[in-house]
Specification:
By secondary structure, the protein is mostly helical. 80% of the residues lie in helices and 0% in strands.
Length: 186
């Protein structure tokens, strides 16, 4: 059970808000009626995240953390930019591919910690599964909050969905650009 809680904590940690920022950018074009599409996109992200963590736990992959931190912020910026270019909440096959690839990159950011914690443990695969269940629970919670706020903004306050999407995407993009510059200046 502790691995599930670690997964939830990993995704909801305010000190490492890059995952939440990515989810904000990912969810920007979607309204409450699109929740299934969004859940599948987030699950594709978790799949990529899981693959990288498994490879790291097996000792197959090792990454330079500063490069990965930069790449994570770039994935957030790209996701936000795509929201401005694609003005609809349709999901194409390549959206899932992008989510998996970006999940691979985000998983790299956590891989050294995961490897240190679990690679010497015989039950690392089971722990990885439980950890990723926690990640998925945390993501669903964050997405529910974003979709809930979006519901209030678009349905109750009557803000056009396009403006809401642009606001979330713009916020995500601004923060991501700031993080990119912070990473480049380290």
């Amino acid at each position: 059970m502790s691995e599930i809680l670690e997964g939830i904590s990993h995704i909801t940690d305010l000190d490492g808000y890059d995952h939440m920022l990515f989810l904000l950018a990912l969810s920007a074009p979607f309204l409450e009626k699109d929740y299934k599409k969004l859940i599948f996109l987030a699950s594709a992200f978790t799949l990529g995240h899981s693959l990288t963590l498994a490879a790291a736990a097996m000792g197959i992959l090792r990454f330079n953390s500063s490069t990965i931190e930069l790449l994570i912020t770039v994935t957030i910026a790209i996701t936000a930019l795509l929201n401005f270019l694609i003005k609809e909440s349709r999901v194409y096959w390549w959206n899932y591919l992008i989510a998996v690839v970006f999940g691979l990159i985000h998983g790299m950011g956590f891989s050294s910690f995961f490897r240190m914690m679990y690679s010497n443990d015989e039950g690392w695969l089971w722990k990885l599964l439980k950890f990723n269940i926690g990640v998925e629970i945390g993501q669903l919670f964050i997405l529910a909050v974003i979709i809930g706020i979006g519901y209030v903004v678009t349905r109750v306050l009557k803000v056009k969905a396009m403006y809401w999407s642009y606001a979330l995407s713009g916020l995500s993009l601004i923060v991501a650009i700031r993080l990119i510059f912070d990473n480049l200046n380290q």
